[in-house]
Amino acid sequence: MKPLSRKIRSRVLWALLFVFLTCTPILIGYSKGYRLDDALELIQTGGIYLHSDIANTTVFLDDDFLENNGAFLKNTFVQDLLPNRYYAVRVEREGYQSWVKVLLVKPNLVTEARVLMLPNEFIWRQIRASTTLTFKETDVVPAEESTTTTTQEVVNPEYTELEEYFTDDKEQFEVEVATSTYEYIRGVRRATTSTIFEIEFPQWLAEFASTSRLSEKEMVREREGMVTWIENGDIYAAWGRINDPVPYFFCMESCADRLSINWQEPILRYEFYPNRNDLLLVLSERGLYVVELDNRYLRMMERW
Questions:
Q1: How confident is the model at residue 169 (pLDDT cuts 50, 70, 90)?
Q2: Are 126 and 136 within 8 A, CB to CB?
Q3: b vs e for 174-208, b when ≥16 Cβ sit within 10 Å of the residue's Cβ?
Q4: Domain residues of the chain, as ranges?
Q5: Which CATH fold topology does 42-114 show?
Q6: pLDDT value of residue 244
Q7: What global pTM score does this model have?
Q8: Residue of 295, 170, 168 whose CA lies nearest to 234
Q9: DSSP character string of 120-187
Q10: Which of 89, 117, 116 lies closest to 102 in space, CA to CA?
């Protein structure tokens, strides 16, 4: 086979070098989210990421069908969205209440949200504190057979997890402290011991509790760094881990120090939703509600 001449090899080299110098910036720009819009102007796109624990959902973007999620891939990632505009995301599933959120997409950023979907009808079931297991052992000896029956109580972990929602004895950060008073009766000192409740915050939360004056607030709750309390009849939420980044729903156009839920009637009690630190269960005279801390439009508030 006859080798290529030096002239042809030089042309091939320059051609490949031209392709490399042309394509490399394009690939780098594409990886950083740069696209051409309808006016052929170079812009940097953004995206939306939906966290979900509900399987088999249908996702819409601005009322246009986007995708169906399966049993395992429940989350949704949408990319190459035009920046500096709002997108309406809707998630649906048969038998569940729809979830809607209007999200602002920024250049070179992924906007996050977490789906809240409750069933239209709830199936009530009894959860027992423990289960009794019965064991039978049969001993066979010459000319004789005997059976021994033993029982064992096994604690139900689901009951243990839910038990905190039904205890009325004290608040989350209240601790029992024993105090003693002394008095002299006819020259004899007698001690009287009583138990009182005091507020005590863990060490990692102490600085935030001090600056926020949490000890003066009502119904203080904390889960996974999210701290909530009642103030002037409304619910407030703030991020207690001062050395960690705040959750995404605190930041819209700018980041807020705290979020609030304006409530129009007295709150009898509230707790965090199981396994979530961005949802609250709020009990009032009108009923029980599930409320998002995420106050981006629309803030979901579902009544049970």
A1: low
A2: no
A3: eeeeeeeeeeeeeeeeeeeeeeeeeeebeeebeeb
A4: 6-31, 42-114, 130-160, 201-303
A5: Immunoglobulin-like (2.60.40)
A6: 93
A7: 0.74
A8: 295
A9: SS-------SEEEEEEEEEEEETTEEEEEEEEEEEE-HHHHHHHGGG--S--TTEEEEEEEEEEEETT
A10: 89
Q: How far apart are CA 85 and CA 96, in angstroms?
A: 29
Taking alpha carbons only, the member of 130, 93, 108 closest to residue 44 is 108
Q: Which two tokens stand for residue 49?
A: 């990421």
- Summarised one tens digit per residue, pLDDT across range 89-129 is 999 999 999 999 999 999 989 999 999 999 988 888 888 88
Structure tokens at 257: 């120090």
Q: What is the pLDDT confidence band of residue 143, given thresholds at 50, 70 and 90?
A: low
The residue behind tokens 């009794």 is 132
- Token code pair at residue 269: 């009690």
Q: For 88, phi and psi rounded to 5 degrees?
A: -95, 120
CA dihedral 160, 96, 236, 251 (to 10 degrees): 120
Query: Cα(120)–Cα(71) distance, rounded to whole angstroms?
Result: 20
For 119, the token pair is: 């069933």
Q: Which secondary-structure segment (H or E) carries 37?
A: none
Q: What number of CA atoms fall less than 13 Å from residue 287's CA on the CB side?
A: 7
Residue 84 CA, chain-centre distance (Å), reads 26
Place of tokens 């701290």: 227
